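Before the break, one more example. Copy the sequence into your notebook; we will annotate it together after we see the structure.
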Amino acid sequence: MCGISGLMLTQPGDIGRRLVQMLDGVQHRGPDSTGFAVYHEDRGGPLLCRIYLGCPGDSSQARAYRDKVLAIIANHGGKVLNQRFELEHLRLELQYQGEVKALCYDIENGAGVEILSMGACLEIIKSVGSAFEVDRAYNLSGYRGTHGIGHVRLATESVVDVSRSHPFWAYGFNDVAIVHNGQITNYHKMKRQLEKKGLQFRTDNDSELIAVYLADKLNAGRTLDEVLEESVHELDGTFSFLVSTLDAIGFAKDVLAAKPMVVLERDGMIAVASEEVSLQRLFPGESLSTYEPYPGTFKTWHKSTLARVA
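Here is what the structure looks like once it is written out:
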């Protein structure tokens, strides 16, 4: 079943706390794991990289993983400015001017770790458990930013673990993430097509395919509107998904519209969720003017446009 939520604010604000509230509202749709993709304010500085180690940060194994990662970054000409362990995560800030795909592929293949996200502003934090449990572990409520997306997962076809939890970073592409409710039935065919182009995947989850598929098109110079319109026709199955980039969020729904989605556009804020109860968490007790997108439709919102109409 799964539940998705997304939020964009006119001005940087408490994006983490609000996403926690929204995901708690749809937690009944996915009790197995919860994840967040949060975009900080435009930092104009080093890349943010969050790595899942699979072991406690105070262990010798974690330190060994870290040393391998730092050595690979140095071999690529990068420089780590800040580093810290957060439970089973390693968070890095680094200067790097080369190709992100080459660096990420080498880190994962050479160090045996999993990169959750990389980008100028994006951080993905996900774990087994509820929205409030992940918040307590990683202090999501303390995250400020402009926009973000989140997901609660009901594992129907694969194991319950961090690797297969959402959001999915578009592996090898800066600042692109997706959350997805549904199933892509032409997954294997499209995955083979992308692999022939030299792109890699970390999991067998069809949601990761959507992320890489979209980011590859964006990287070729297409607009977010263009790639979402194409996705409606090129992806087979039942799906409602949200995609986030450095300066935008957007959605696409399949032509059957079997997976629910509700949108709220209000006071310089865009909020999207699987159910209205999620949106009610932002405005408890109020009557909201929402709408459900039509089958086979898509839409995007950009920070600059949102600021002008607020």
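The chain has a mean pLDDT of 92. The longest strand covers residues 3-13. Try to locate both features in your own notes.
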